[in-house]
Amino acid sequence: MKSPSIEFSFTPVNNHRLNALCGALDENLRRIEAALEVTISRRGEKFAVAGARGKIEVAAKVLNQFYAKAGADLSVEDIQLGLVEVQRGRLVKQTKEDVNRPANAVEAVTLHTKRADLRARTDRQAQYLQQIQSHDITFGVGPAGTGKTFLAVACAVDAFERDLVKRIVLTRPAVEAGERLGFLPGDLSQKVDPYLRPLYDALYDLLGFDRVSKMFERNQIEVAPLAFMRGRTLNHSFIILDEAQNTTPEQMKMFLTRIGFGTKAVITGDVTQVDLKAGQVSGLVDARNALHGIQGIGFTIFQAVDVVRHPLVQSIVTAYDAHTRTRRG
């Protein structure tokens, strides 16, 4: 039986938009095919989309939307993030939490950063941004690729630009696959840098390399391993604790009690990627159980459908979750 198909054309044709839409050797079309499970063929400005009825209608709308945006070149990131938003729109009612949430439950949050296109791509990302702005302590828990760390850094940059805080403090437990700081070469800064590279990358993207370098020189950005936070009280700061699943309950309590006046803290982590010794309780899991429901502390629990990286990342996270449940069951 022949698959349903839709045929359409972009007229009058704009060759620049058409080339940007299709990409080199039609690579953008191949990405759309893989993500939406359709087949796209074209001859010049004429397109044909084949596949399941609901999917070909979505694919046709996506092609029209990307064509309208193609006044400037479309990057791989533009295509992938656009597809994430489309797929999220189709998956949004798959969980009980989302079914019961009103459509207008979370308002859009605007952040002041170098990235004009920065915005929440999923409902939970929007909830996460709103919680960071309205809570002094916010936990972002979920799988890789859901934007937990990047959005936390974006909120820190936004708070600094608005003069709501005087400095940004980045910290992370120095425990990765059994290694600790003492095993690494170099001085303290050189030992810590590899662990904080994702945070640096986000800062460079949101502020630019030169601006970040100057802020480091002025101590407006500070980095430190979690162990060096003991005994301090941080006022008028935006603190990000990344990879918090590798803290112990004692370290988590120590960190949370460092918070002073005018300070916000965001704690991010993935409880499925704990690198602590066997039998050790994760401070992130412990905090989630102990602190849930306390006024002033927000929790956002991301799911696989919130992944905003390469489309395969969402499939990988989902497959590992299913594999883990099967292995335990």
Describe what you observe in this structure:
With 329 residues, the protein is α/β, with parallel strands linked by helices. The protein is built from twelve helices and nine strands. The strands form two sheets. It has a six-stranded parallel sheet with strand order 6-5-7-8-4-9, with helices on both faces. Strands 1-3-2 form a three-stranded antiparallel sheet. α10 links the parallel β7 and β8. α1 crosses α3 and α2 runs parallel beside α4. It is globular, with a radius of gyration of 22 Å. About 5% of the residues have low confidence.
Topology (SSEs and partners):
Layout: E1 5-9, H1 15-22, H2 27-36, E2 39-43, E3 46-50, H3 53-69, H4 76-91, H5 96-99, H6 123-134, E4 137-141, H7 148-161, E5 167-172, H8 188-207, H9 209-217, E6 221-225, E7 237-241, H10 249-256, E8 264-269, H11 283-291, E9 297-301, H12 311-328
Report helical residue fraction: 40-55%
User: Could you give the order of the helices and strands?
Assistant: EHHEEHHHHEHEHHEEHEHEH
Radius of gyration: 22 Å
What ranges have pLDDT less than 50 throughout 5 or more consecutive residues?
90-106
Shape: globular
The class by helix and strand makeup works out as alpha/beta
Q: Which percent band covers the strand fraction?
A: 5-15%
Number of β-strand runs? 9
Q: Give the termini distance in whole angstroms.
A: 40 Å
The major beta sheet can be summarized as:
6 strands, parallel
Strand order of the largest sheet: 6-5-7-8-4-9
Number of helices: 12
Mean pLDDT: 83
